[in-house]
């Protein structure tokens, strides 16, 4: 008898979050209410952060996303809440001890901590997928493989420092935390079946305890096109131009490559 070949499951496209999205949190009162509602939820806390990579010099967060089962999805604007130190401490006291689910946590933890949030327990879905031996570990492919859902990623490289935020960007941002609790549960099942869950949890905790990397020595030597520059004088020109560009970019909080691209430095040298 011939066996029927099963058709692959086509992922269902998610254009909007499955759970209710709260209004954008921009005030201390809204932040306090978000902390209260998230505290009343259950299970791990799904967390994501959006930066303005390629647009701004500093890698600060311009949006935080939080979701917990039993609560709404909250998008928090850190640009308006940086001085709310008491509320940030309250957030850590009430939610910092819960397990935080973050995808590719090493990318987001620096800006999460820079703002003042202090997670004590972590589940990294990207690292968990790597430890499980899954072939594709990006958030989109992983969601398709484990949840049969597809995420729109057309806004992944936008300038998140723009205000007001575009409405469609908010939906995109919300989706990133919408799926994290389900992904976490699916990965726990896989890791348990492989006998790797305890190892994975140890690896996640080691990320939280890792020291920040040392600054690169002579970062100007990584200028694109520098291999075409000949002689000590040419390299000295690259160094001086790179350092002056870096100073201007830092002062203006503009991504250095947007201010003056690498290839222009190399061409001038």
Describe the fold and architecture.
There is one protein chain. The protein is 46% helix and 13% strand. It contains eleven helices and seven strands. Strands 4-3-2-5-6 form a five-stranded mixed beta sheet, sandwiched between helices. It has a two-stranded parallel sheet with strand order 1-7. Strand 5 (99-102), helix 3 and strand 6 form a beta-alpha-beta unit. The longest helix is centred in the last third of the chain and has 22 residues, at 231-252. The radius of gyration is 22 Å and the shape is globular.
Radius of gyration from the alpha-carbon trace, in angstroms: 22 Å
Q: How far is the first residue's CA from the last residue's CA?
A: 72 Å
Order of helices and strands: EHEEEHEHEHHEHHHHHH
Largest sheet: 5 strands, mixed
Q: Output the strand order for the largest sheet.
A: 4-3-2-5-6
Shape: globular
Which blocks of ≥5 consecutive residues have pLDDT under 50? 1-6
Averaged pLDDT: 92
Based on secondary structure, the structural category is: alpha/beta
- Enumerate how many helices there are, as a single number: 11
Strand content: 5-15%
Helix content: 40-55%
- Record field, number of beta strands: 7
How are the secondary structure elements laid out?
Elements: E1 12-14, H1 28-40, E2 42-51, E3 61-69, E4 74-76, H2 85-95, E5 99-102, H3 105-115, E6 121-124, H4 125-131, H5 139-147, E7 149-151, H6 167-178, H7 180-193, H8 197-209, H9 231-252, H10 256-259, H11 262-268
Helix pairs in contact: 1-2, 4-7, 5-7, 9-11
């Amino acid at each position: 008898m011939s066996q029927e070949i099963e058709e692959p499951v086509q992922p269902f496209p998610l254009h909007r979050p499955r759970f209710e999205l709260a209004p954008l949190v921009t005030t201390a009162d809204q932040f306090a209410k978000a902390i209260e509602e998230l505290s009343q939820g259950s299970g791990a806390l799904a967390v994501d952060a959006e930066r303005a990579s390629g647009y701004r010099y500093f890698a600060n967060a311009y949006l935080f996303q939080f979701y917990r089962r039993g609560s709404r999805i909250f998008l928090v604007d850190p640009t308006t809440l940086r001085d709310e130190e008491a509320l940030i401490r309250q957030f850590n006291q009430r939610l910092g001890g819960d397990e935080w689910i973050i995808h590719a946590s090493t990318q987001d933890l620096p800006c999460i901590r820079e703002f003042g949030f202090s997670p004590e327990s972590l589940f990294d879905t990207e690292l968990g997928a790597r430890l499980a031996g899954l072939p594709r570990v990006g958030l989109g492919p992983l969601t398709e493989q484990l949840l049969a859902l597809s995420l729109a990623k057309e806004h992944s490289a936008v300038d998140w420092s723009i205000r007001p935020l575009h409405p469609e960007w908010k939906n995109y941002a919300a989706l990133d935390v919408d799926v994290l609790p389900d992904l976490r549960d699916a990965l726990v099942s896989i890791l348990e079946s492989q006998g790797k869950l305890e190892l994975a949890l140890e690896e996640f905790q080691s990320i939280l305890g890792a020291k920040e990397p040392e600054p690169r020595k002579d970062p100007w030597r990584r200028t694109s096109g520098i291999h075409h520059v000949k002689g000590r004088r040419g390299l000295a020109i690259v160094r001086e131009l790179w350092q002056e560009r870096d100073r201007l970019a830092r002062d203006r909080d503009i991504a250095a490559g947007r201010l003056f691209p690498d290839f222009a430095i190399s061409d001038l040298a």
